[in-house]
């Protein structure tokens, strides 16, 4: 199977299984002979990882919503310019754990910032790069939060700033992701993430193969 270079984003609420899906996609696509780069946001570069530590740690009141948006965008500029665009130019398939869809959900719907402002900032700063396909892992919020909080606690990871927010905030995030899929179905695949990891990963892979082999 010949697979073309593409940018694939995996999105969803905290605890929806994004990291596992990214790993599974990368491994399976490599087994088919594709050159794959797996990455994440915020992160993907040393600068992005430093910004990740700033934004995801600590208490929620640490950052104003606009500051949070600008930090996330700064990390994405580094990620796109230094990692994603060069990889695509080399003919690789890039699979990223989160991209601009998360910004529209968390800083847009969640924080109340204007969608127009976020989109304009993306166009101006990032160059209007969008995924060829965005997988949205859809899961009950309480289930996802329980998984994510357990992982952070078990692994002693200080990235729980968003997990500390109330259920209503996370329900708005889930709604925002679902709206993205409904508004642009040609560029999104809504994946039921309530099944076993194997079932979710299989559904995600089928959606990606359908797009890349088209």
Automatic annotation (TrEMBL):
Protein name: Thymidylate kinase
The entry's keywords: ATP-binding, Kinase, Nucleotide biosynthesis, Nucleotide-binding, Transferase
Keyword Transferase (UniProt): yes
Protein EC: 2.7.4.9
Classification via InterPro entries: P-loop_NTPase, Thymidylate_kin-like_dom, Thymidylate_kin_CS, Thymidylate_kinase
Biological role stated in the UniProt entry: Phosphorylation of dTMP to form dTDP in both de novo and salvage pathways of dTTP synthesis.
PROSITE patterns documented for this protein: THYMIDYLATE_KINASE
Signal peptide stretch: none
Cellular component aspect of the GO annotation: cytosol
SUPFAM superfamilies: P-loop containing nucleoside triphosphate hydrolases
Gene Ontology BP annotations: dTDP biosynthetic process; dTTP biosynthetic process; dUDP biosynthetic process
Domain of life: Bacteria
Organism: Cereibacter changlensis JA139
Protein family per UniProt: Belongs to the thymidylate kinase family.
Reaction(s) catalysed by this chain's protein: dTMP + ATP = dTDP + ADP
Binding-site residues for ATP, renumbered to this chain: 12-19
Residues of the Thymidylate kinase-like domain: 10-202
GO MF annotation terms: ATP binding; dTMP kinase activity
Top-tier EC class: transferase
Matching HAMAP family: Thymidylate_kinase
